[in-house]
Structure formats: C-alpha cells, structure tokens
Amino acid sequence: MQAAVFKGAGVLALEDVPEPVVEADDDVVIEVEACGICGSDLQILNVPPGHPADPGVILGHEFIGRIRALGRGGGTLQVGQRVVVDPDPKCGTCGPCRAGRPASCENVRALGVFRHGALAPLVKAPAAFVFPLAEGPSSAIASLIEPLACVVTGVNRADPRPGESAVIFGAGAIGCLFLAMFKAAGASPVIVVEPQAARGAVAMAVGADLVVSPEELAAQRRELLPHGADVIVDAVGNQLGTAIEHAGLGGRIVLFGMNQTARPPIQQYTITERSLSVLGSYITAFTFPTAIRLVEGGMLPLDPIVTHVLPLERVSEGLDLLRSGVATKVVITPGVAPVT
Q: Is the pTM value of this prediction over 0.85?
C-alpha cells in the first residue's frame, strides 16, 4: 500500500509499504476513512523540528475508519464496525496512569509519531484504544474527534464559566475547537487572535465574538478587555509571554500548542503578582467518549473548520495549504485497499 512516510530532516515521501496484519491478540487493523493533518505533523516536518518523531514512521494520528481484521482480544469490536482511535495508547501501569493521570503516561508511543499512523489505507491499533463510532457524522467531521478529545482535556483544565472572557491565540483547527467549546460553556466575549484572514473567517463562522490580529489586540486590549482576560489559550505554542501580558487578575492560561524550539520571554513576577495559573494540557484524559458524543450529537458548529479534503497523493499540497494559513484543517482520504 502507499503511505506518507516521515524520512527525517523535514521530508515526507509517498512510498509503498507492507500492509499491517494482525500479529497480537489485541491488534485491530483498520481501513482508514479519513485522517486529519495535525499541527504537530507540521512541527515534525519543520527544520529544526518542533516535535519529535521516528524517521521511517507513517505519519497521521487524527483518523477514523472501519475494522478490517482483529485479534482474539478485540472484545466487543467487530469486523466492519466504524471506529475512531485514541492514537496515544497509555500503559495503565506507570505511576501517573495508576494515579488517574493518563495524559502523563510515561510509556506512550503515539501512532503517527513513534509507531505507524494513518496517512495510509490501513493502520494497526491496540483494541483498548479503539472506540465505536456511529454512522451519522461525515468522514471529515468525524476525523475531528481525536483533536476534539485533546481539546476537551484542555477545556476541563481551563474550566471556562458562563460570562467569563476568553482570548484564544491561533485560529487553526485547535483554536477553533477551543472556541466552539468555550462558546458552548457560555464564555463571553471570546476573542480569537489570528493574523490570517482566511482562518479568521473560519473562527467567525464557528462563533467568535471578535477576531483580531496580534497588533490589533495589543492596541485595543484595554478597550476590549479592560481587566484582562479570565481565560487564555495558546493554541500556537509560542505565546506564553503575550498570554501573561493580557491575562486578568486570577486568570488561567492554558498552553496547548506544541513547539519544542520556542523560547518565549516571560516575566515571572507578573505571574505571581496577578495570581495567574499556567496550565499545560497534553493529549487526552478519559475524554474520547465525550468528544464522540459531541460529534455524534452535532452539538458543536464544526463544519466550517474542515476547509480542505484531499486524496493521499496530494498530502504535500495539504501541508503547504496549512503552512500558508489558507487552510484551517486539511483532511486526507487515503482510499481503502481492496480485500484479497
């Protein structure tokens, strides 16, 4: 089968690779229906990289599909069933897992990062992290379940309350998912900071009260939020210093975007003097069922977020669209290999 393989040093190549097969009792082989390109995929391909990955791995971790084959340990899962996958299998036995903090699992080996992912017609996943999915949601919208599950974890940390003000840095897919969740929680106003006009338009369609450029926020913040924001989300990965500057007294700052090369300047005194809470949020913590219910129930305005759906052979074009800011979310449809 053809797959998008990370070759190292910013190179992604379409290559013919062997199809995955069931080898262990808990293996589930899934025909990939749709796979989103994540911001972390872009970071993996940056030079220098902003996120680690193993060269030779097939990228892609935001995916849904149908079960083609499964081992004896598949439980109630069935061949032909539509499913979504948590691509960050937690071990369940390390200290953080046993303490109820699975997002801090010490032994995660993520699909699409350290083991083969879903920018391919077929992918293999462990049964315990495969969730049934209803037939209703479209492929493109259903592929948002994985990032939404991560965002739900971040929203739980932020704890937005009705009437609280919020600022979200970045109107990519993650920023727009935070926006949709904050609006559903009753936060108001929710201001999105985004320099790209195309992404700003998507944020408005999802429900932003206002979209401003970074320069506009700096110039107008005292008018827009005279006391600072109650909740701030950095969905970019390098905005901590700016977030601290715009947070109100007792504000909560959620750091979600990931870029290991970022070194933003911060003033520690301000964190203490304003009694700010700085909260890192990473992957999921028992939030896949919630994200699945939100998507299956059509509870959030997600349609505007997916701006491009492309076949696997155009994956490089999708990466360029995201880098340019023209796209908000690119979803790849790898196509399913015929059953032999």
A: yes
